[in-house]
Design goal:
Elements lengths: L8 E5 L4 H13 L4 E4 L10 H10 L10 E4 L2 E4 L1 H14 L11 H12 L8 H17 L12 H10 L9 H11 L2 H4 L11
Parallel strand pairs: 1-2
Antiparallel strand pairs: 1-3, 3-4
Helix pairs in contact: 1-3, 1-6, 4-6, 5-7
């Protein structure tokens, strides 16, 4: 990967956050070199919210102090799905990087939208709809398929942090198999931590 000519990438993150995990998964999956800065969200000490607000302000954003924030050279981006899309665009043009472009972009957008609009509750009709849809898509693709095609894509990076945090339906065999395969993937397994937030 040292032959990649991309601007320096920095992910401002907190390992317990599912939204920041999305971006970490995307970066890991592409093979793009990046560094991480852990943000102390709950007090002072180390890199904290006030320092993150300076990064946002210097990058032309109205400071919020929320994670994830990603810097690519002088470009500063926030909002997890936007960061994942930017990583995918960068990976499509970087020599040697693994592309995250989905084979079915419309399905990828729909799955990400369903995930992004879920209520902040452990159980809901919307969550059940998303899980059932993902299970049906995976069942149709077979044992080696992914959410938006035959290869890992932005849809997988965006949904996996949430899929690992919910109780899957007992009859969602394809979704259970997919999650087991995902845990064996270094791009995902390197981002999984013992203690995490269920939702933001």
């Amino acid at each position: 990967m040292s032959s990649l000519t991309v601007p320096p990438i920095t992910l401002y993150t907190h390992t317990a956050c599912p939204f920041a995990q999305r971006v970490a998964i995307a970066l890991e999956a592409t093979g793009l070199p990046f560094s991480k800065v852990e943000v102390n969200l709950y007090g002072r000490g180390g890199f904290d919210k006030s320092q993150l607000r300076r990064v946002e302000s210097d990058g032309g954003l109205r400071p919020k102090g929320y994670i994830p924030v990603m810097a690519i050279g002088d470009e500063v981006i926030r909002e997890s799905s936007t960061c994942v899309e930017r990583v995918a665009a960068l990976s499509a043009t970087a020599p040697g990087a693994v592309s995250l472009e989905p084979e079915d972009p419309q399905l990828a957008r729909e799955l990400i939208r369903l995930c992004d609009t879920l209520p902040k509750a452990p159980q809901s009709a919307a969550l059940d709809q998303l899980l059932r849809k993902a299970d049906a898509v995976l069942a149709a693709r077979g044992e080696a398929g992914y959410l938006a095609g035959s290869a890992f894509s932005v849809a997988d990076a965006c949904l996996l942090p949430f899929l690992q945090r919910v109780d899957l339906p007992t009859d969602a065999a394809a979704l259970r198999g997919y999650l087991a395969r995902a845990h064996a993937m270094p791009a995902f397994s390197r981002t999984v931590v013992d203690s995490w937030w269920w939702w933001w």
